[in-house]
Amino acid sequence: MTPDAVDIRRAERKALRDELSAFLKSRRGRISPDEVGLPPGPRRRTPGLRREEVAQLSGIGITWYTWLEQGRSINVSTQVLDAVARTLRLDAAEHAHLYRLADVPTVPASGCEQIPEELQTILDHLGALPACLLGPRYDVLRYNDAYQALCPGCISSGRNTLWEVFTTPGCCNAFAPQQDDKGRMVAYLRGAYGKNVGDPTWLDFIGRLSTASPEFAALWERNDVAVPIMRKVRILRSLAVGDIEMYITSLTVPTLTNSWIQIFTPAADADRRKLEELLAMSHDEQLAPLLAHQAKYHAASA
Protein backbone atom coordinates (compact mmCIF):
# COMPACT_ATOMS: atom_id res chain seq x y z
CA MET A 1 0.00 0.00 0.00
CA THR A 2 1.37 3.41 -1.01
CA PRO A 3 1.86 6.22 1.56
CA ASP A 4 -1.04 8.13 -0.02
CA ALA A 5 -3.31 5.08 0.28
CA VAL A 6 -2.29 4.68 3.93
CA ASP A 7 -3.17 8.32 4.62
CA ILE A 8 -6.54 7.93 2.88
CA ARG A 9 -7.35 4.78 4.85
CA ARG A 10 -6.32 6.48 8.11
CA ALA A 11 -8.61 9.41 7.33
CA GLU A 12 -11.48 7.05 6.48
CA ARG A 13 -11.10 5.23 9.78
CA LYS A 14 -11.04 8.48 11.73
CA ALA A 15 -14.22 9.61 9.96
CA LEU A 16 -15.87 6.29 10.86
CA ARG A 17 -14.82 6.64 14.52
CA ASP A 18 -16.20 10.18 14.65
CA GLU A 19 -19.51 8.97 13.20
CA LEU A 20 -19.55 6.04 15.63
CA SER A 21 -19.05 8.39 18.58
CA ALA A 22 -21.89 10.68 17.50
CA PHE A 23 -24.18 7.73 16.74
CA LEU A 24 -23.70 6.02 20.12
CA LYS A 25 -24.21 9.30 22.00
CA SER A 26 -27.44 9.97 20.13
CA ARG A 27 -28.81 6.45 20.70
CA ARG A 28 -27.84 6.56 24.39
CA GLY A 29 -29.56 9.91 24.79
CA ARG A 30 -32.95 8.71 23.58
CA ILE A 31 -33.40 5.97 26.23
CA SER A 32 -34.62 6.91 29.71
CA PRO A 33 -33.49 4.92 32.78
CA ASP A 34 -37.00 3.71 33.56
CA GLU A 35 -37.24 2.15 30.08
CA VAL A 36 -34.48 -0.29 31.01
CA GLY A 37 -35.51 -0.82 34.63
CA LEU A 38 -33.07 1.61 36.28
CA PRO A 39 -34.08 4.09 39.00
CA PRO A 40 -34.06 7.71 37.84
CA GLY A 41 -31.51 8.65 40.55
CA PRO A 42 -30.23 12.20 41.04
CA ARG A 43 -31.05 14.96 38.61
CA ARG A 44 -29.36 14.35 35.24
CA ARG A 45 -27.65 17.08 33.28
CA THR A 46 -28.50 15.40 29.96
CA PRO A 47 -31.33 13.05 28.94
CA GLY A 48 -30.85 9.36 28.44
CA LEU A 49 -28.52 6.78 29.91
CA ARG A 50 -25.07 7.44 31.29
CA ARG A 51 -22.06 5.68 29.79
CA GLU A 52 -21.59 3.53 32.88
CA GLU A 53 -25.23 2.43 32.69
CA VAL A 54 -24.85 1.35 29.06
CA ALA A 55 -21.70 -0.56 30.02
CA GLN A 56 -23.41 -2.23 32.97
CA LEU A 57 -26.49 -3.25 30.98
CA SER A 58 -24.30 -4.54 28.15
CA GLY A 59 -22.05 -6.56 30.45
CA ILE A 60 -18.84 -4.80 29.39
CA GLY A 61 -16.33 -2.65 31.22
CA ILE A 62 -17.00 1.07 31.58
CA THR A 63 -13.51 1.91 30.27
CA TRP A 64 -14.02 -0.25 27.18
CA TYR A 65 -17.41 1.29 26.41
CA THR A 66 -16.06 4.80 27.00
CA TRP A 67 -13.24 4.17 24.53
CA LEU A 68 -15.76 2.80 22.03
CA GLU A 69 -17.99 5.87 22.33
CA GLN A 70 -15.02 8.20 22.20
CA GLY A 71 -14.01 6.68 18.90
CA ARG A 72 -10.70 5.32 20.16
CA SER A 73 -8.78 3.01 17.80
CA ILE A 74 -9.72 -0.31 19.42
CA ASN A 75 -10.64 -3.73 18.06
CA VAL A 76 -14.19 -4.46 19.09
CA SER A 77 -15.85 -7.89 18.80
CA THR A 78 -19.25 -8.54 17.27
CA GLN A 79 -20.37 -9.88 20.67
CA VAL A 80 -19.71 -6.48 22.25
CA LEU A 81 -21.48 -4.67 19.42
CA ASP A 82 -24.47 -7.00 19.69
CA ALA A 83 -24.67 -6.42 23.46
CA VAL A 84 -24.54 -2.64 23.02
CA ALA A 85 -27.14 -2.86 20.25
CA ARG A 86 -29.52 -4.74 22.56
CA THR A 87 -29.03 -2.22 25.36
CA LEU A 88 -29.61 0.74 23.05
CA ARG A 89 -32.58 -1.03 21.45
CA LEU A 90 -31.28 -0.64 17.91
CA ASP A 91 -33.45 -1.85 15.07
CA ALA A 92 -32.05 -3.92 12.18
CA ALA A 93 -30.94 -0.89 10.15
CA GLU A 94 -29.29 0.77 13.15
CA HIS A 95 -27.63 -2.51 14.13
CA ALA A 96 -26.10 -2.90 10.67
CA HIS A 97 -25.07 0.78 10.74
CA LEU A 98 -23.28 0.18 14.05
CA TYR A 99 -21.29 -2.66 12.47
CA ARG A 100 -20.28 -0.47 9.53
CA LEU A 101 -19.18 2.42 11.74
CA ALA A 102 -17.16 0.02 13.89
CA ASP A 103 -15.45 -1.15 10.68
CA VAL A 104 -16.53 -4.75 11.24
CA PRO A 105 -16.46 -6.77 7.96
CA THR A 106 -19.65 -8.70 8.68
CA VAL A 107 -23.27 -7.76 9.10
CA PRO A 108 -25.41 -8.64 12.11
CA ALA A 109 -27.70 -11.62 11.69
CA SER A 110 -31.23 -10.30 11.33
CA GLY A 111 -33.12 -13.31 10.04
CA CYS A 112 -34.44 -13.82 6.54
CA GLU A 113 -35.05 -10.59 4.65
CA GLN A 114 -38.53 -10.19 3.24
CA ILE A 115 -38.78 -9.52 -0.48
CA PRO A 116 -41.39 -6.80 -1.10
CA GLU A 117 -44.36 -8.18 -3.05
CA GLU A 118 -44.29 -5.22 -5.42
CA LEU A 119 -40.92 -6.33 -6.82
CA GLN A 120 -42.60 -9.23 -8.62
CA THR A 121 -45.19 -6.82 -9.99
CA ILE A 122 -42.41 -4.56 -11.29
CA LEU A 123 -40.69 -7.51 -13.01
CA ASP A 124 -43.96 -8.67 -14.56
CA HIS A 125 -44.74 -5.18 -15.90
CA LEU A 126 -41.46 -5.16 -17.83
CA GLY A 127 -43.29 -7.47 -20.24
CA ALA A 128 -41.02 -8.48 -23.11
CA LEU A 129 -37.84 -7.45 -21.28
CA PRO A 130 -36.36 -10.41 -19.37
CA ALA A 131 -35.65 -9.44 -15.77
CA CYS A 132 -34.83 -11.06 -12.45
CA LEU A 133 -33.97 -10.29 -8.84
CA LEU A 134 -30.61 -11.75 -7.81
CA GLY A 135 -29.43 -12.41 -4.27
CA PRO A 136 -25.85 -12.01 -3.01
CA ARG A 137 -24.98 -15.63 -3.97
CA TYR A 138 -26.55 -15.12 -7.43
CA ASP A 139 -29.72 -16.99 -6.45
CA VAL A 140 -32.59 -16.07 -8.77
CA LEU A 141 -35.05 -14.88 -6.12
CA ARG A 142 -37.73 -13.56 -8.49
CA TYR A 143 -38.10 -13.49 -12.29
CA ASN A 144 -40.61 -12.76 -15.02
CA ASP A 145 -41.87 -14.97 -17.85
CA ALA A 146 -39.46 -13.42 -20.37
CA TYR A 147 -36.48 -14.30 -18.16
CA GLN A 148 -37.71 -17.89 -17.84
CA ALA A 149 -37.93 -18.09 -21.64
CA LEU A 150 -34.42 -16.72 -22.05
CA CYS A 151 -32.79 -18.85 -19.31
CA PRO A 152 -34.90 -22.04 -19.08
CA GLY A 153 -32.05 -24.23 -17.83
CA CYS A 154 -31.28 -21.96 -14.89
CA ILE A 155 -34.93 -21.76 -13.83
CA SER A 156 -35.65 -25.48 -14.27
CA SER A 157 -32.60 -26.51 -12.22
CA GLY A 158 -31.12 -24.74 -9.21
CA ARG A 159 -32.12 -21.15 -9.99
CA ASN A 160 -28.59 -19.90 -9.41
CA THR A 161 -26.78 -18.08 -12.21
CA LEU A 162 -23.31 -18.65 -10.77
CA TRP A 163 -23.93 -22.40 -10.64
CA GLU A 164 -25.24 -22.29 -14.21
CA VAL A 165 -22.21 -20.33 -15.43
CA PHE A 166 -19.63 -22.69 -13.92
CA THR A 167 -21.26 -26.11 -14.21
CA THR A 168 -23.23 -26.01 -17.49
CA PRO A 169 -21.29 -26.82 -20.70
CA GLY A 170 -20.70 -23.80 -22.94
CA CYS A 171 -22.72 -25.29 -25.80
CA CYS A 172 -25.95 -24.99 -23.82
CA ASN A 173 -25.02 -22.41 -21.19
CA ALA A 174 -27.56 -19.59 -21.47
CA PHE A 175 -25.07 -17.05 -20.15
CA ALA A 176 -22.25 -17.98 -22.58
CA PRO A 177 -19.80 -16.37 -20.18
CA GLN A 178 -16.42 -14.95 -21.13
CA GLN A 179 -13.46 -15.34 -18.77
CA ASP A 180 -13.70 -11.71 -17.62
CA ASP A 181 -17.38 -12.22 -16.80
CA LYS A 182 -16.58 -15.24 -14.66
CA GLY A 183 -13.79 -13.46 -12.82
CA ARG A 184 -15.98 -10.47 -12.02
CA MET A 185 -18.86 -12.65 -10.82
CA VAL A 186 -16.59 -14.53 -8.42
CA ALA A 187 -15.01 -11.27 -7.28
CA TYR A 188 -18.46 -9.87 -6.45
CA LEU A 189 -19.29 -13.07 -4.56
CA ARG A 190 -16.05 -12.68 -2.58
CA GLY A 191 -17.01 -9.11 -1.68
CA ALA A 192 -20.48 -10.17 -0.54
CA TYR A 193 -18.97 -13.05 1.45
CA GLY A 194 -16.96 -10.46 3.38
CA LYS A 195 -20.23 -9.47 5.05
CA ASN A 196 -21.12 -13.10 5.79
CA VAL A 197 -17.79 -14.60 6.89
CA GLY A 198 -18.26 -17.95 8.58
CA ASP A 199 -21.97 -18.24 7.69
CA PRO A 200 -22.66 -22.00 7.27
CA THR A 201 -24.94 -21.50 4.25
CA TRP A 202 -22.24 -19.49 2.47
CA LEU A 203 -19.53 -21.99 3.34
CA ASP A 204 -21.70 -24.84 2.07
CA PHE A 205 -22.44 -23.06 -1.22
CA ILE A 206 -18.81 -22.12 -1.83
CA GLY A 207 -17.64 -25.63 -0.92
CA ARG A 208 -20.10 -27.37 -3.23
CA LEU A 209 -19.38 -25.07 -6.16
CA SER A 210 -15.62 -25.40 -5.63
CA THR A 211 -15.98 -29.18 -5.77
CA ALA A 212 -18.18 -29.05 -8.88
CA SER A 213 -15.99 -26.52 -10.72
CA PRO A 214 -12.19 -26.39 -10.39
CA GLU A 215 -12.34 -23.18 -12.44
CA PHE A 216 -14.52 -21.52 -9.82
CA ALA A 217 -12.24 -22.82 -7.05
CA ALA A 218 -9.18 -21.28 -8.74
CA LEU A 219 -10.91 -17.91 -9.20
CA TRP A 220 -12.15 -17.97 -5.60
CA GLU A 221 -8.60 -18.50 -4.33
CA ARG A 222 -7.48 -15.31 -6.08
CA ASN A 223 -9.34 -13.27 -3.42
CA ASP A 224 -10.36 -10.60 -5.93
CA VAL A 225 -13.30 -8.36 -5.00
CA ALA A 226 -15.58 -6.27 -7.22
CA VAL A 227 -19.06 -4.78 -7.51
CA PRO A 228 -21.63 -5.57 -10.22
CA ILE A 229 -21.25 -3.56 -13.44
CA MET A 230 -24.29 -1.35 -13.86
CA ARG A 231 -24.51 -1.88 -17.63
CA LYS A 232 -22.79 -4.37 -19.92
CA VAL A 233 -23.31 -6.32 -23.13
CA ARG A 234 -23.50 -10.09 -23.11
CA ILE A 235 -24.43 -12.87 -25.50
CA LEU A 236 -27.33 -14.97 -24.22
CA ARG A 237 -27.46 -18.44 -25.73
CA SER A 238 -30.91 -19.75 -26.66
CA LEU A 239 -31.09 -23.16 -28.30
CA ALA A 240 -34.59 -22.26 -29.51
CA VAL A 241 -33.74 -19.15 -31.57
CA GLY A 242 -29.94 -18.79 -31.44
CA ASP A 243 -27.62 -16.36 -29.67
CA ILE A 244 -29.09 -12.99 -28.64
CA GLU A 245 -26.90 -10.01 -27.82
CA MET A 246 -28.35 -8.15 -24.84
CA TYR A 247 -27.61 -5.10 -22.75
CA ILE A 248 -27.75 -6.07 -19.06
CA THR A 249 -28.67 -3.22 -16.71
CA SER A 250 -28.27 -3.76 -12.97
CA LEU A 251 -30.33 -1.84 -10.40
CA THR A 252 -29.64 -2.11 -6.69
CA VAL A 253 -32.44 -2.72 -4.18
CA PRO A 254 -31.69 -0.70 -1.00
CA THR A 255 -34.09 -2.72 1.16
CA LEU A 256 -32.35 -6.04 0.36
CA THR A 257 -28.72 -6.57 1.33
CA ASN A 258 -26.46 -7.15 -1.69
CA SER A 259 -29.40 -7.92 -3.97
CA TRP A 260 -30.04 -6.34 -7.34
CA ILE A 261 -32.37 -6.44 -10.34
CA GLN A 262 -31.03 -7.38 -13.78
CA ILE A 263 -32.91 -6.21 -16.88
CA PHE A 264 -32.04 -7.56 -20.34
CA THR A 265 -32.57 -5.32 -23.39
CA PRO A 266 -31.89 -6.45 -26.98
CA ALA A 267 -28.79 -4.74 -28.39
CA ALA A 268 -30.04 -4.47 -32.00
CA ASP A 269 -33.16 -4.98 -34.13
CA ALA A 270 -32.07 -8.50 -35.09
CA ASP A 271 -31.75 -9.39 -31.42
CA ARG A 272 -35.15 -7.88 -30.68
CA ARG A 273 -36.73 -10.01 -33.41
CA LYS A 274 -35.13 -13.17 -31.99
CA LEU A 275 -36.45 -12.33 -28.53
CA GLU A 276 -39.94 -11.70 -29.91
CA GLU A 277 -39.82 -15.04 -31.71
CA LEU A 278 -38.80 -16.76 -28.48
CA LEU A 279 -41.55 -15.12 -26.43
CA ALA A 280 -44.18 -16.06 -29.02
CA MET A 281 -43.49 -19.74 -28.29
CA SER A 282 -45.21 -21.77 -25.61
CA HIS A 283 -43.19 -22.73 -22.54
CA ASP A 284 -42.85 -26.30 -23.82
CA GLU A 285 -41.57 -25.04 -27.19
CA GLN A 286 -39.03 -22.80 -25.45
CA LEU A 287 -37.71 -25.65 -23.32
CA ALA A 288 -37.84 -28.52 -25.86
CA PRO A 289 -34.57 -27.69 -27.73
CA LEU A 290 -32.62 -27.59 -24.46
CA LEU A 291 -34.06 -30.90 -23.26
CA ALA A 292 -33.33 -32.55 -26.62
CA HIS A 293 -29.77 -31.21 -26.59
CA GLN A 294 -29.15 -32.43 -23.05
CA ALA A 295 -30.56 -35.88 -23.87
CA LYS A 296 -28.35 -36.18 -26.96
CA TYR A 297 -25.06 -34.75 -25.71
CA HIS A 298 -25.08 -34.76 -21.90
CA ALA A 299 -27.20 -37.75 -20.86
CA ALA A 300 -24.22 -39.52 -19.27
CA SER A 301 -23.21 -36.54 -17.11
CA ALA A 302 -26.83 -35.95 -16.06
From TrEMBL:
<dbReference type="InterPro" id="IPR041413">
    <property type="entry name" value="MLTR_LBD"/>
</dbReference>
<dbReference type="Pfam" id="PF17765">
    <property type="entry name" value="MLTR_LBD"/>
</dbReference>
<protein>
    <submittedName>
        <fullName>Helix-turn-helix domain-containing protein</fullName>
    </submittedName>
</protein>
<dbReference type="GO" id="GO:0003677">
    <property type="term" value="F:DNA binding"/>
</dbReference>
<dbReference type="Pfam" id="PF13560">
    <property type="entry name" value="HTH_31"/>
</dbReference>
<dbReference type="InterPro" id="IPR010982">
    <property type="entry name" value="Lambda_DNA-bd_dom_sf"/>
</dbReference>
<dbReference type="InterPro" id="IPR001387">
    <property type="entry name" value="Cro/C1-type_HTH"/>
</dbReference>
<feature type="domain" description="HTH cro/C1-type">
    <location>
        <begin position="23"/>
        <end position="95"/>
    </location>
</feature>
